[in-house]
Amino acid sequence: MIREELVMACYCDIAGQTRGKGFPLSELDARLASGVGWTPTNIMLTAFGPIASSPWGPFGDLILRPDPEAEVRVDFQDGSAVEHFLLSDVRNTDGSPWDCCPRRFLKSAVEDLRSETGLQILAAFEHEFYYFGAQERIGSAYNLDSIRRHGVFAEVYLAALRAAGITCDSYLAEFGPRQYEVTCEPARGVQAADHAVIVREMARATAQRLGSQVSFAPAVTPDVVGNGVHIHLSLLDSKGVPVAYDATAPHGLSRIGGSFVAGILRHGRGLCALTAPSVVSYQRLVPHRWSAAWTNLGYRDREAMVRICPVNETGGRDPARQFNVEFRAADATANPYLALGVLIRAGLEGLRQELPTPEITSRDPETLTTSERERLGVTRLPQSLGEALEALAADEAACAWFPEQLLDAYVRHKEAESEIMRGLDRDTQCAHYTEAY
Ligand code: GLU
Ligand code: MG
User: How far is the CA of 302 from the centre of ligand 2 (A)?
Assistant: First the structure.
């Protein structure tokens, strides 16, 4: 059969979906210069089809400008179509950045962090997902047999990631039925969010080649352990030296790292509107599901909103290079550029105000008295998307991080999503998200 390679210019939108337009491979050089045409209202496409009330309606034109630094070309060598796409910036037709471009939002947060503090962010998105093609077995968490029971998925996936330029750090069978987890090497700034998109798309591409599907939905079914996205963060100075670690500070969190985390916790409730931005995200963010439920900083606590991760000092390994904190109140319905962007913005507020390191909790916040929680500044995370949007609206400083049009589009979009889900029972909501993500 005759075939010609297709290249897609894509971006990740408010719904966290990867969408774009394609062109023949022969046109790649020309398209790198000119981009492909795009429509503003496309960013209002919900994950379920209907378009949220759009500020632009049928008007306007944009350009998807592929970034040659974010090119993925993976040939699965099974005769299937080559996966060839480039993550793109969304620009106005005069080439200037579009205010609602999520990648631009992250780039400007990275740039402000650098220009004001000289710091760079190093991040890794750890993903959990559900693989439909795995054979379920009782008690299968971390089981070698669970790896066996999902056939060649892991091998093909690792190879696809490698071909896409991403090195897997670890891979495992998670606690839930048919649940797996993948962690990749950290990357700086925008590249970290690019990698999050690629990690999701390569999992989908792998499953599709194997005649199956994956889902990154935060809750595949109600009351079963959720699929989290844990965003690991560390800070480097302008020379690339890690600065979040201080061996003499409590649990190794330096003054700089502590201020950064304090900013995140201070804005924690509003951040959820960006990091856990779906109706079913709040089925996951409940106490005792090993996700996150309170605005606390925990040492090695897998239910803290921000967890100080362990370092491995065996064999003289440098703790400073490994040291990182993990933001746990995120999932894959979030756009990774917006999620990382707001974490940087919140952290930067903490640095500007030289906030002290939050007190590190070592107990379940639920077991603390109200006054103890008040003293620690620990509050319950929003319990619905609506509550998260209200928390964002009430956080004036956080609202000011966004170009006005982006905030307006985002809120409209999320309100439409809530409306689509209204009246559906929890099983149906989960089923829709499982299909869409
Ligand atoms: N599945 C848990 C979540 O929803 C995370 C479990 C873990 O890796 O600690 O975040
Ligand atoms: Mg996990």
Answer: 9
Beta-carbon contacts of 41 under 8 Å, excluding residues fewer than 6 positions away, are 51, 54, 56, 57, 58, 60
Pick from 169, 290, 306, 331 the residue to mutate for probing ligand 1's pocket: most ligand atoms within 8 Å of its CB. Answer: 290
Q: Are residues 37 and 154 in the same domain?
A: no
Last residue of a domain, one of 44, 67, 96: 96
Cα dihedral 406, 412, 414, 419, rounded to 10, equals -170
114 is a domain residue: yes
Tell me the pLDDT tens digit for each residue of 152-186: 999 999 999 999 999 999 999 999 999 999 999 99
Q: Ligand 1 site: residues with CB under 6 angstroms?
A: 128, 225-226, 228, 284, 290-291, 302, 328
The domain of 247 spans: 105-392+404-436
We report the CATH number of the domain holding residue 72 as 3.10.20.70
195: in domain: yes
Mutate to test the pocket of ligand 1, among 127, 225, 437 (most ligand atoms within 8 A of CB): 225
Its pTM stands at: 0.98
Q: How do residues 327-342 score in pLDDT, each as one tens digit?
A: 999 999 999 999 999 9
Distance (Å, whole) CA 254 – CA 357: 8
